[in-house]
């Protein structure tokens, strides 16, 4: 682990405050993993990370357990804790879950009008990032689009599920490491879904979303399969 990475992680120590807990450490590490700071396959050093964050070994191990439960980390016998490398089956399963959850949310929205301001804001963020050729910003905006779409259900449990699923999905994005290829083609489709919902056409929006997720899955599986063996 490079020295500059540890210095950057040490900057996160202030986020822990006086009531440092394993959950807060897990929040920091989850964000860092989602941002690609710790790429898939990286071994996480207890001594280095614990020292950078100023937390005990027990606290850090508990945070590792939490993230292992979320399928972001894995413990390899006699080797330590690593950021997971998803298999192609993992990626396909994530999309099965996404299709079930996201389409169900749109299907259950009820009568229009819908509270689409935050969803539309995520679309605008993606368009601005694309205009600036900031492709990682496009990726982040796309994740926010789907999180805000699911948030229309007004369910904390569903929000928590999607946070976990999308965080795991980003492990695959970091392996492919081509956010323009993965996300730019969907900017117009994001906007079309919002416009369809604004028109009150919930069923049509669900159909658009289902096709969208199928195409996204197929594109990611193809790109990911070029980087990770089928049994990986």
Number of E-type strands: 3
Question: Gap between N and C termini, in Å?
Answer: 23 Å
The amount of beta strand, in percent, is under 5%
Oligomeric status? single chain
Describe the structure.
This protein is mostly helical and 232 residues long. It is built from eleven helices and three strands, in the order ααβααββααααααα. Strands 1-3-2 form a three-stranded antiparallel β-sheet. The two termini are 23 Å apart.
What's the topology here?
Layout: H1 3-10, H2 22-34, E1 43-44, H3 46-53, H4 57-69, E2 73-76, E3 80-83, H5 88-107, H6 117-131, H7 135-151, H8 156-176, H9 179-183, H10 187-198, H11 202-225
Helix pairs in contact: 1-3, 2-4, 5-8, 5-11, 6-7, 6-10, 7-8, 10-11
Short synopsis of the structure:
It is built from eleven helices and three strands.
State the main characteristics.
232 residues; mainly alpha; three-stranded antiparallel sheet; 67% helix; 4% strand
